UniProtKB/TrEMBL annotation, chain A:
<comment type="function">
    <text>Component of the 9-1-1 cell-cycle checkpoint response complex that plays a major role in DNA repair. The 9-1-1 complex is recruited to DNA lesion upon damage by the RAD17-replication factor C (RFC) clamp loader complex. Acts then as a sliding clamp platform on DNA for several proteins involved in long-patch base excision repair (LP-BER).</text>
</comment>
<protein>
    <recommendedName>
        <fullName>Cell cycle checkpoint control protein RAD9A</fullName>
    </recommendedName>
</protein>
<dbReference type="GO" id="GO:0000076">
    <property type="term" value="P:DNA replication checkpoint signaling"/>
</dbReference>
<dbReference type="InterPro" id="IPR007268">
    <property type="entry name" value="Rad9/Ddc1"/>
</dbReference>
<keyword id="KW-0269">Exonuclease</keyword>
<dbReference type="Pfam" id="PF04139">
    <property type="entry name" value="Rad9"/>
</dbReference>
<dbReference type="GO" id="GO:0004527">
    <property type="term" value="F:exonuclease activity"/>
</dbReference>
<dbReference type="GO" id="GO:0030896">
    <property type="term" value="C:checkpoint clamp complex"/>
</dbReference>
<keyword id="KW-0540">Nuclease</keyword>
TrEMBL record, chain B:
<dbReference type="InterPro" id="IPR003011">
    <property type="entry name" value="Cell_cycle_checkpoint_Rad1"/>
</dbReference>
<dbReference type="Pfam" id="PF02144">
    <property type="entry name" value="Rad1"/>
</dbReference>
<dbReference type="GO" id="GO:0030896">
    <property type="term" value="C:checkpoint clamp complex"/>
</dbReference>
<dbReference type="GO" id="GO:0000077">
    <property type="term" value="P:DNA damage checkpoint signaling"/>
</dbReference>
<keyword id="KW-0227">DNA damage</keyword>
<dbReference type="GO" id="GO:0006281">
    <property type="term" value="P:DNA repair"/>
</dbReference>
<dbReference type="InterPro" id="IPR003021">
    <property type="entry name" value="Rad1_Rec1_Rad17"/>
</dbReference>
<protein>
    <recommendedName>
        <fullName>Cell cycle checkpoint protein RAD1</fullName>
    </recommendedName>
</protein>
<keyword id="KW-0234">DNA repair</keyword>
């Protein structure tokens, strides 16, 4: 970066959206990575949680801002990270005051990001935090390769899951062609191998609750409830259609929304519980070459994900990684018959042309800069870790490339 | 509304008797009575005392003009509360008195009937608790507080401690470098996101923009508030010399606390860098009460200052 100042001005009508989006990010990770993407004219804010089992990215486009750094400055890039805690206090200030203007100033000389809040009564509040130049944070996943894709209004989703108690660590989604069930994960296994059934309830939705419903693979996946609830915190402000991509256990679940009228979009990738070690979904073929990734996976990252699952199973459940429900093998074998039925049934074919269009654009990908640090959200064992991308230049086509 | 039982006009026999006992005692020790004050609402006194409650002990002075309570903390902060005689319903002073007392105890006694809070704002609600303060010069007699709510009287006898000297900050009122007066509510809003975990607060007051700036430097970044001279929050702005001083953050925590019950705040800094913060507090009566703080600047950080006179802060004891 240069010795210049990048100034972004957010108009009053977008301030709350900015504050709320950033608030969600500060809850989902310890550090927020900021990048100015010149190709798409977007300023992206990304974060990943400590155990690297979730990745979030919110990008604000040129029209979101009232003022944008001039073109000559755009030859230089912004690539840095800030502490989420510092950001949290600034965001809290943004959300609690009525602002006439909000400025974001990246001062490269002092490595300082300032949030300048113009409040009422001619009062100006400035929250600044230091940033560190770093490489960008990017997850690799391919939305196209997912067999299941549903789209639902975020407020509806929030209402459905509102009464799930926060103390439940994980939430399970069971989706078939006819039903979409949201429930708590089935069993609790104690150290002595006895099974205890706690209280459970489930929400059963029909496909017509959804804007689009395309299920080609009977899914039964479990992921973190807490982070999911943070993500739905955005739903209070914006009731937007949220697209969910998912399929087999272990493969991460992706939530996307595109607030076109507000000029920003977001992608959230959460890891899901894998099957018992060694078990794979036999009938499911992965299209991406991420099998390569597993072999070079860092041992530490594997440990960190296991640690995460151990921590989330709770004290009274012992240190076991929760096994898959015993019904899963039977689910898998039924895939073929369902597929057959499915092909005939035209009503359930997802009509989501917008999604299709945007994701096919990335055929002509450019290679990312040498030395970028990326981490991979792996498919089979849903282990997420940090990797050097220079090893995987050939795999760039698989990236969810936001530089298009 | 029910006719309230009060210390002022007792009707029932029980309280009459109690009152007679007190009166009798008073008659016998009448020579000793130095001070009697009566207040219809103890909340007035309690809320003012709460704002200067930052140390264990306080000095109580009863003067012809009113009550003055002085609280000091480690020789670097002094808080004074002035309650004028006209705020009281009855104020009899025989001789000027001055003694030290345990502030928390007195506060607990004043709130002995509880502090009802507004369910929405969580602010204390006004109550019907009346208070009488009696003090005899004879040090063996304790400070007497009588609190009464709807016919129930609580008698509190609080031991007083020996008087101690208090700091004279020697605030040079004739040599005030800058004076700014704010509306309390607006200023409180401005301070609402200041990081009070920072080590020190920097005050910058200049004739140019920004006229008034408060900076809190924390780890990993800083928070600052700029208030322009034109702001409706600022009532008065006078600045003869630019001021850039640092003060300990805890001082500003006291300021924020006092802002909740004040209507106006005046900040004055003299040539030595001593900050005098005065809060105007209106209670039921028209006559306002005053709470003021004196803060000394953080000396070691101001060594590089060229503009302010480099005189050390001299603490003169009485």
């Amino acid at each position: 970066m240069t010795e210049k100042k990048f100034i972004f001005v957010i108009p009053p009508e977008h301030v709350r959206h900015f504050g709320k989006a950033l608030q969600v990010l500060t809850k989902l990770g310890e550090e927020i990575y900021i990048e100015l993407i010149t190709k798409t004219n977007g300023l992206s804010f990304r974060t990943a949680n400590q155990s690297r089992s979730s990745y979030s990215c919110i990008t604000f486009y040129r029209d979101f801002f009232q003022e944008w750094p001039q073109d000559d400055l755009q030859k230089e890039k912004i690539k840095c990270r800030i502490s989420a805690k510092r950001c949290m206090s600034a965001v809290h200030a943004v959300l609690s005051s009525k602002l006439t203007r909000l400025e974001l100033v990246f001062d490269d000389r002092k490595s300082n990001l300032s949030f300048i809040l113009h409040c009422r009564y001619n009062i100006i509040k400035i929250h600044s935090c230091f940033y560190i130049d770093c490489e960008k944070l990017q997850a690799r996943f391919d939305k196209q390769s997912y067999k299941n894709c549903v789209s639902i209004m975020s407020k509806t989703l929030q209402d459905l899951t509102a009464h799930f108690p926060a103390k439940w660590d994980e939430i399970t989604i069971r989706a078939t062609k006819d039903q979409f069930i949201i429930k708590k994960c089935d069993e609790i296994v104690h150290d002595d191998e006895s099974i205890v059934y706690g209280m459970n309830f489930q929400v059963v939705c029909e496909p017509r609750e959804f804007i689009s419903y395309d299920i080609q693979y009977k899914s039964d996946i479990t992921f973190c409830l807490r982070e999911f609830k943070f993500l739905l915190g955005l739903a209070d402000l914006l009731n937007l259609p949220m697209t969910i991509y998912f399929d087999s256990r272990g493969r991460p679940i992706i939530f996307c929304f595109d607030a076109e009228e507000f000029y920003f979009d977001g992608t959230f990738v959460f890891a899901t519980m894998a099957n018992r070690e060694g078990e794979t979904d036999i009938s499911f073929n992965m299209t991406q070459t991420s099998v390569n990734d597993t072999s070079t996976m860092d041992e530490d990252d594997l440990v960190s994900y296991r640690q995460y699952t151990i921590n989330t199973t709770g004290v009274n459940r012992g240190g076991k990684k929760r096994p898959a429900p015993s019904t899963s093998p039977t689910l898998e074998t039924q895939i073929n018959p369902i597929d057959e039925e499915f092909n005939i049934d035209e009503d359930n074919i997802s009509i989501d042309p917008k999604q299709r269009i945007s994701t096919t654009n990335h055929k002509n990908t450019t290679t990312t800069a040498f030395g970028d640090t990326t981490y991979t959200v792996l498919s089979q064992q849903s282990i997420v870790g940090l990797q050097q991308s220079e090893d995987f230049m050939a795999d760039m086509t698989d990236d969810e490339d936001e530089e298009n | 509304m029910l006719e309230q039982m009060s210390l002022f006009d007792t009707h029932q026999e029980d309280t009459d008797e109690e009152e007679n006992n007190v009166n009798e005692q008073e008659q016998t020790d009448n020579d000793d009575i130095a001070f009697v004050a009566k207040l219809k609402s103890s909340r007035t006194l309690a809320s003012i005392l709460k704002t200067i409650h930052f140390a264990d002990d306080a000095i109580f002075c009863a003067l012809p003009t009113g009550i003055k309570i002085i609280v000091e903390d480690k020789q670097c902060v002094q808080g004074n509360a002035f309650i004028d005689t006209r705020v009281f319903d009855s104020y009899e002073l025989v001789r000027q008195i001055r003694f030290r007392f345990h502030l928390e105890t007195v506060l607990n006694c004043l709130n002995v009937f509880g502090i009802p809070l507004d369910p929405v704002t969580h602010e204390p609600l006004p109550t019907n608790v009346a208070v009488q303060i009696h003090y005899r010069e004879n040090q063996t007699h304790p400070l007497q507080l009588y609190l009464e709510e709807e016919g129930v009287i609580t008698e509190c006898l609080i031991k007083v401690l020996d008087d101690t000297d208090t700091i004279d900050f020697d605030f040079q009122t004739e040599n005030v470098v800058t004076k700014v007066v704010f509306k309390a509510s607006g200023f409180k809003e401005a301070l609402s996101e200041i990081d009070l975990k920072a080590d020190c607060i920097e005050l910058l007051i200049t004739q140019d923009v920004p006229h008034f700036r408060l900076i809190a430097n924390g780890c990993g970044g800083s928070t600052s508030v700029d208030i322009n001279q034109d702001s409706p929050v600022m009532d008065t702005f006078l600045c003869t010399e630019p001021v850039n001083n640092r003060y300990k953050t805890q001082f500003f925590q006291y300021i924020v606390r006092a802002l909740s019950i004040a209507s106006k705040l005046s900040l004055r800094i003299d040539a030595a860098g001593i900050l005098c913060a005065q809060f105007l507090i209106y209670t039921e009566k028209d006559k306002p009460s005053l709470v003021e703080y004196f803060f000394g600047p953080d000396e070691e950080l101001n060594e590089h200052e060229a503009n302010t006179q480099s005189s050390d802060v001299v603490l003169i004891e009485d």
